[in-house]
Amino acid sequence: MxxxxxxxxxxxxxxxxxxxxxxxxxxxxxxxxxxxxxxxxGNTLKNVLxxxxxxxxxxxxxxxxxxxxxxxxxxxxxGLFQTSDSASDxxxxxxxxxxxxxxxxxxxxxxxxxxxxxxxxxxxxxQALTDEEFDLLRNAAAVTPGFVTAS
Length: 151
Known about the structure:
The protein is of the alpha+beta class. Helix content is 32%, strand content 28%.
């Protein structure tokens, strides 16, 4: 990985190359396989953008996720959600995806002061996230709405 890992670099990539490249930039700084943008649509979270380190086509199970079984619900409820190992995270006891979607780090995307969706890194393996990368994720979510809310 080369170049600065900061919000100015993210903004420059967003402005010059678009949201797909900016999302790939976020993903390049973390171990997580996936980085994504989900839009809240009633009781469903719809995947708007997905970057997969493996370069595979988005699996159907990630295209739409029921709100009540998503980890995004905790982002929307609490303003952020982080777990590096959902299997051992007692906050998730009884959740159907505890230990299935193992790591998840997400923040809300706001549009016009309302929750529009989430920006997150996730993986089926244990993955930690540094405070610096989480701060970058949070700052990226704050400048992303204008580029994704038209989706």
